[in-house]
Every structure is written in C-alpha cells, then in structure tokens.
TrEMBL record:
<keyword id="KW-0028">Amino-acid biosynthesis</keyword>
<dbReference type="InterPro" id="IPR036188">
    <property type="entry name" value="FAD/NAD-bd_sf"/>
</dbReference>
<dbReference type="InterPro" id="IPR006005">
    <property type="entry name" value="Glut_synth_ssu1"/>
</dbReference>
<dbReference type="InterPro" id="IPR017896">
    <property type="entry name" value="4Fe4S_Fe-S-bd"/>
</dbReference>
<dbReference type="Pfam" id="PF14691">
    <property type="entry name" value="Fer4_20"/>
</dbReference>
<dbReference type="InterPro" id="IPR028261">
    <property type="entry name" value="DPD_II"/>
</dbReference>
<dbReference type="InterPro" id="IPR023753">
    <property type="entry name" value="FAD/NAD-binding_dom"/>
</dbReference>
<protein>
    <submittedName>
        <fullName>Glutamate synthase subunit beta</fullName>
    </submittedName>
</protein>
<comment type="pathway">
    <text>Amino-acid biosynthesis.</text>
</comment>
<feature type="domain" description="4Fe-4S ferredoxin-type">
    <location>
        <begin position="38"/>
        <end position="69"/>
    </location>
</feature>
<dbReference type="Pfam" id="PF07992">
    <property type="entry name" value="Pyr_redox_2"/>
</dbReference>
<keyword id="KW-0314">Glutamate biosynthesis</keyword>
<keyword id="KW-0560">Oxidoreductase</keyword>
<dbReference type="InterPro" id="IPR009051">
    <property type="entry name" value="Helical_ferredxn"/>
</dbReference>
<dbReference type="InterPro" id="IPR051394">
    <property type="entry name" value="Glutamate_Synthase"/>
</dbReference>
Length: 496
C-alpha cells in the first residue's frame, strides 16, 4: 500500500468502454485499448490492506489480491505477475470474463465502491505478456507417466498445464476443430478476443502439452482405449446439455438454442463462414432467458444488425443495491441490477421499444409461439408472473419474433458421444458426473472436473477445478503432490 489514504482520496474508476456507436460496428473487445494501464496503479492503491481479506476468500482460486494490489501500486509488475501466476494459470481470461465475486467481498465495498480487483488482475496479466514475464515453463524432467485430458475448456487447459509442468506427458483430446471450449465457440470476441486464448495455447505447446483436436472421445476413439493407453484420464467435458422450453409452437423454425446460435457467429470471426446462417440481420429477435448467455446473444444480435432485440427474464427487476437481509456482504449478490456492456448497447440504441430501460422485460414468462404458413416463427406471447411464477391477470402481450434464442441454462454433460456410458460412469441425480473427495470417479484412474462434475459454473471455478484435479491426479500417479489444490469438489460460492 504505497498510499495508506488511497481509498479516501481516489474514487473508483473502471476501465472505460468504447462509445456504443463505435463498438457495435466491430467484434473487438468493448474496452478502450491502452486505457487501463495509465489508471490502474492509483486504483490498486485504493486497497486498504484490511487485514482479513474477504476478497481472497471469495475468489475460488485464492488469488493473493492484497499482495498484488500492493505490488501494482508500487509498479513492481514482475513481482505482481509472479504472485498472480502462482494461483491462476490464465489471469487474462478471468481479468476479462470473471463476474468478480472478490469485489463483492471487498471490505471497502461495505460503504463505498470496491477496489477494481478484476481490472488490476487484467492489467497485470496483459503487462506480463508485454514484458515477457509469462514464458513457457517446461518441466526439468519427465515422470514417465501419461495423462489424457478430455476437453479443452478452462478446466482441461488448467489441468493439462499443471500436470505438464509437474513432468507428466499430457495429451488433450478435443472434439471441436479448435481448442478452448466455451471460450472459443460460446463467449463472443467482444468479451474476450481469441488471440488471448491462442497465446496461452502456444505457451502450453512450448511446455510440452500435446493437443488432439476433432477427436470426440467415445465416438472417434473409444474411452476404454484411452484408459489402456494412459496412466490416468481427466474428464473435463463441460455441461452443455441445454434446457428446453416446452411450450406450444416450439417446433416452428427460427427458434434456436443460444449454443446453436453463438458458435456460428464465432465461426464467422474465425473466418470459417462469410455470414452466420442464423444471422439476426434485419430480424426481430427475442431472447428467452435473463442470464449471461442471453446477454451474449443480445450483444451478438445487435452487432449482426437485428431490427429489434428483446431479452426476457423470468425474475422481477432487481434493486440497484444488494438486499442485506438475503444476500449480505461479503456474499456475491445475485439479485442486483447489473448493466453489462451488451445491455448498455441495447439501452442506448433502443433495440427493444417495448422494454422500459435496457432491452429486458422482467418477470416475463413465455406462453407460446405463433408462426406463418411456412411454419416459421413470427410472434411470441408472454405474460407477467408474480414471485411464485403465477400469471398476473391482464398482462399478456405479443412481441414480433422472427428469431427466438433460448438461453435457459444447462442441465449437465452432453452424453451424445457415449463417453459416460462406455466407461460406466456414475452420475449425480442432477446428471453431473459423480466423484469422491479426491475428484476420482467410480472408474479407477478416471477423474472428473469442471462443469461436467460441478454443473454449469464460471471460468474462475473451472480453472480452480483444473488445478485441484491436477493435484489429485499427480498424487494418484506419484504418491504425493506439491501442486496446489485451491478447492475441493464440494466447495461452493460463499453464501449466508
Ligand atoms: C455463452 C456462454 C457465455 C459464458 N460467459 C461466461 C463469462 O463471461 N464468464 C464466466 O466466468 N463464465 C462464462 N460462462 C461459463 C463458462 O464458460 C464455463 O463455466 C466454463 O467454460 C466451463 O469450463 P469447462 O472446461 O468445464 O467446460 P467447457 O468450456 O464447456 O469445455 C468442455 C470441452 O470439452 C469438449 N468435449 C465435450 N465432450 C467431449 C468428448 N467426448 N471428447 C472430446 N472433447 C469433448 C467440448 O467440445 C468443450 O471444448 C459462459 C458460458 C456460456 C455458455
Ligand atoms: S479470478 Fe475472479 S474472483 Fe478471483 S480475483 Fe480475479 S476477478 Fe476476482
């Protein structure tokens, strides 16, 4: 803490976003390039070094936040990068994509805006790459043990990097043609440009991790074959089995799942397609589902040139501040009004003439879809619901809809490749892969981590899962492990 009064003299300042009119005309990240570094040391100086850092507790990775705030306030970037990489394999991912539960737990946030922890993390990560503080770290010697990691999302990548650095020979199997999991084909480039992913993959290749793309385990290669060929197997296949909306008219064309829509626009960005076959250009778009996946659809539809975009949220409009009775500090308040970059764009561009402020209609429940003579969706009927989801009389309304995107969350791992059945994996009642306190499944030598076992979650949890399962696998292979395990399989976010 270079200035012990920093939190009294410096107001919070976030990384500024580019003007809405400018950024919706491209797919680059929404932030002003180069505008973070000049402000970030003063922002880090707002950290009070409070003594009991709840931010550190609230971060699933156990990031050493007060330590690197201090180092950044003193502009010791090399030491800050070392402290950050000690707990986080991919801070440039979390620095851009994490919802920052750490900031909800910041002691300063009790009565004034929290330290911009996520921005500090991003600045350290970006500076580390610029200055060459994040070189490949290949192992000094090899263990002679082999590990197959199935899935190349943040869980699989973190597990693979940890195990490779520990000296094991690691191959990552990925069914998609490119690596990265949901960070590749789910999350749009305006939230995180893909070159951040490519740079880490290059680092991992240089360390010795091997990658096999376009290989679905269970379909292109038998799960048992992997078990025979490798000393251990880590399943990190995510939880992408989507939830359905079983209302009349669902069978009409023009109604798609968010994860049918988002990958196509990401493929346009990758240069695989000229335009998306599901492009929103010129269409009236309705997104059913009020979460982050829906917001990603919103930002994408706006950039594709939709005629209008409306997002439906089943929950009532939340308050501007946390409810201290139900979600007190230092927990992460779920029910607080947040204006994401996509919502800001929708608000400023008035994409949803029917909505009050941004593009959202709250407490809205879809009743049915109507189509035209060709069987294509043309409208969506909805009704307002109370807190127990009972329809409120006289609130029915109809929205024009040529493209409907369902963003209702995910129920568990996608079982279509046969991996779960081939191995005879036990599942939890909610469909996720069951595992014991050491991340081991019921099949000897097979471990499970990330969304596949935890259920739909966040990148910060996925990286923490990857690090923890790596420690468990290392122990299984060698009898002990010096690798860190930031979480256990049953750990959950801090709640009341
Ligand atoms: C649209 C969207 C936006 C999101 N935005 C954010 C965000 O902004 N911030 C945030 O923190 N979280 C976000 N999330 C959640 C986050 O992306 C996930 O929690 C995280 O990616 C889970 O990581 P994972 O590695 O466990 O699984 P995934 O990222 O799903 O990766 C699993 C990988 O396994 C591969 N795979 C599956 N089966 C097989 C098989 N049989 N053989 C070989 N490979 C296989 C898949 O192709 C995939 O690449 C978002 C999720 C979605 C859907
Ligand atoms: S990973 Fe997320 S919770 Fe952890 S310090 Fe970074 S922004 Fe905060």
């Amino acid at each position: 803490m270079a200035d012990p009064k920093g939190f009294l003299t410096t107001p919070r300042q976030d990384w500024p976003r580019r003007p809405v009119e400018e950024r919706v005309r491209d797919w680059d990240e929404v932030y002003v390039p180069g505008a973070l570094l000049p402000i970030i040391s003063k922002q880090a100086d707002r950290c009070m070094d409070c003594g009991i850092p709840f931010c550190h507790e609230a971060c699933p990775l156990g990031n050493l936040i007060p330590e690197w705030n201090d180092l950044v306030s003193r502009e010791d970037w090399r030491a800050a990068a070392d402290r950050l990489h000690a707990t986080n394999n991919f801070p440039e991912f979390t620095g851009r994509l994490c919802p920052a539960p750490c900031e909800a737990g910041c002691v300063l946030a009790i009565n004034q805006p929290a330290v911009t922890i996520k921005n500090v993390e991003c600045a350290i990560a970006d500076r580390a790459w610029e200055e060459g503080f994040a070189p490949p770290r290949p192992p000094d010697r090899l263990s002679g043990r082999t590990v197959a990691v199935i899935g190349s999302g943040p869980t699989g990548l973190a597990a693979a990097q940890q195990l490779t650095r520990a000296g094991h020979t690691v191959a990552v199997y990925e069914r998609d043609d490119r690596l990265g999991g949901l960070m590749r084909y789910g999350i749009p480039a305006f939230k995180m440009e893909k070159h951040h992913l490519e740079r880490r993959l290059e680092q991992m290749r240089a360390e010795g991790t091997r990658f096999r793309t376009s290989t679905a385990v269970g379909r292109d290669i038998g799960a048992d074959e992997l078990r025979t060929r490798y000393d251990a197997v880590v399943i990190a296949t995510g939880a992408t089995a989507w939830r359905e909306l079983p209302v009349p008219g669902r069978e009409l064309t023009g109604i798609h799942q968010a994860m049918e829509y988002l990958p196509l626009s990401n493929r346009v960005g990758e240069g695989d397609l000229e335009t998306s076959p599901l492009s929103a250009a010129g269409k009236h778009v309705v997104i059913v589902g009020g979460g982050d996946t829906g917001a990603d659809c919103l930002g994408t539809a706006v950039r594709e040139g939709a005629a209008s975009v409306t997002q439906l949220d089943i929950y009532a409009l939340p308050g501007a501040e946390r409810d201290e009775d139900t979600e007190p500090w230092p927990t992460y308040p779920v029910r607080v009004y947040r204006l994401s970059a996509a919502h800001e764009e929708a608000r400023d561009l008035r994409t949803a003439p029917v909505a009050d402020a941004d593009a959202r209609l709250f407490a809205a429940s879809t009743l049915r879809f109507d189509g035209d003579a060709q069987g294509h969706v043309r409208s969506l009927h909805l009704v307002e619901v109370d807190e127990r989801r009972r329809p409120v009389d006289g609130t029915g309304r109809t929205l024009p809809a040529d493209l409907v995107l369902l963003a209702l969350g995910f129920s568990g791992p996608d079982r279509r490749d046969g991996l779960v059945d081939q191995l005879g994996l036990e599942l939890e009642p909610r469909g996720t892969i069951a595992r014991d306190a050491g991340f081991a499944t019921n099949v000897p030598g097979v471990f499970a981590a990330g969304d596949a076992a935890r259920g739909q979650s966040l990148i910060v949890w996925a990286i923490a899962e990857g690090r923890a399962v790596a420690a468990a696998v290392d122990r299984h292979l060698t009898g002990g492990s010096a690798l860190p395990a930031p979480i256990g399989p049953y750990d959950r976010p801090m709640v009341v």
